[in-house]
Specification:
Helices cover 12% and strands 42% of the residues. It has 6 helices and 19 strands.
């Protein structure tokens, strides 16, 4: 219990410290411009399911569900015994501007005995029809680019309160869709990455008034893998390797009503772009001299360790790279859920700040989740703002039980 309370205190302390650093000003000219970290295939860092999407994109320590393979595969080991379930999620993208860009996600999970679980998932991001143009504005034809990932994960209970998991992800990014007008040097980007997850959940403790409480904590390191390249030369880009740590506090008021409060802390394990002498390359293919920060021309694994202490702005900027997600979920009779959440990202690192609301319904073998994003910043627009996202769930185990 003391360890869990201490962990919760650390989470609150990190939020407070980050808010204090927001007000610090600097004389370094580097801080006068946007310094967001960019990666290839950023779509794989987008929440795929509507349940988490309605809770501010939290999920590393939330109660296990079918889509835990994305948030923290270690939670799969704590699915209900006999679970055999499937979910399908759909997210319109930039739906105010176009109608043919969308994110589709398919996930399935199965509980193996009492202590093991496995899951498979596929993500498909369609960019719609793209009309390509040359630098001279000549028509190069059209194509239908897309990005796709295939995931597999295995989770194992170490005890009645802890579990570990490993996952494997294949990433395929076809941004040119075979359009030869863009040059024969282009190709689809491909790489393989792994996930590592840890999950802890306490037993329920009695409280005054008949209520019960429990705690949970999780850690997930996702997309640990090689860099990705879209050409036949030596250039390549980092994928969004991410560290996610979080906790949850669960309250059970009575047999019908329960509520959870969650917080996730995220950090991209990707090098921060340094400040170079001229801020650009001098045309000879050799980057200009680094005058602040550290050289980001490193391999993927070196970049993971370097990402903790390479920001040109020092410790202050490292704190700015932390993204905080908070969420709340209320269930009535395990049939109706109401959700809300908030994401905070520092303005200098992208400024993605938004509120979310969500709704969940469960009836017999079916379930549906809905999520809606409300932007909290007038400066940064989200491609998901004012967009209704949904997930459909199907529980095969309950079908078999009803047949019996």
């Amino acid at each position: 219990m003391k360890k869990l309370l201490y962990l919760s205190f650390i989470f609150l302390l990190s939020i407070t410290a980050k808010a204090q650093f927001e007000n610090i000003e600097t004389e370094n000219a580097y801080f006068e411009s946007l310094r967001s970290i960019t990666t290839a295939v950023p779509i794989i860092a987008i929440s795929p399911d509507a349940r988490a999407g309605g809770m501010g994109d939290v999920g590393v320590a939330s109660q296990p569900d079918i889509n835990s393979i994305y948030w923290n595969p270690a939670k799969l080991a704590f699915l209900e015994d006999g679970t055999r379930a499937l979910s399908i999620s759909y997210t319109p993208w930039l739906n105010k501007l176009v109608n043919d860009i969308n994110l589709a996600y398919l996930s399935g999970a199965v509980k193996i005995g009492d202590n093991q679980a496995a899951a498979l998932a596929m993500r498909y991001f369609s960019l719609g029809e793209i009309n390509f143009k040359s630098e001279q504005n000549d028509d190069l034809g059209s194509a239908f680019p897309y990005e796709m990932t295939l995931n597999a994960a295995y989770a194992l209970k170490l005890s009645q309160t802890m579990s570990l998991a490993v996952g494997l992800r294949y990433i395929y990014s076809n941004l040119t869709a075979g359009n030869q007008g863009l040059g024969s040097n282009t190709k689809p980007g491909q790489t393989v990455a792994t996930d590592i997850g840890y999950y802890f959940t306490s037993r329920e403790y009695n409280m005054e008034g008949g209520m019960r409480q429990s705690f949970a904590a999780g850690l997930n390191i996702s997309n640990v893998g090689g860099k990705i390249s879209y050409s036949n030369d030596a250039s390549s880009d980092f994928i969004p390797t991410n560290l996610r740590i979080g906790g949850a506090y669960n309250l059970r008021f009575d047999r019908y009503n329960r509520m959870s409060f969650m917080v996730d802390v995220n950090k991209l394990l990707v090098p921060t772009p340094p400040v170079r002498e001229d801020g650009d390359e001098d045309g000879n293919g050799v980057p200009d001299e680094v005058i602040a920060g550290r050289d980001d021309n490193v391999n993927a694994f070196q970049g993971i360790f370097q990402s903790f202490n390479d920001a040109p702005g020092g410790f202050r900027e490292e704190l700015e790279e932390i993204v905080i997600n908070t969420g709340v979920e209320f269930w009535y009779d395990d049939r109706f859920a109401f959700r809300g959440g908030y994401q905070y990202e520092d303005t200098e690192k992208g400024g993605r700040k938004y509120f979310t609301i969500g709704l969940g319904l469960r009836y017999n073998v079916f379930g549906m989740d809905f999520a809606y994003l409300i932007p909290a910043s007038a400066l940064v627009k989200s491609p998901l703002e004012n967009t209704l996202r949904f997930t459909l769930l199907f529980d095969f185990e309950k079908v078999a039980a009803s047949d019996n």
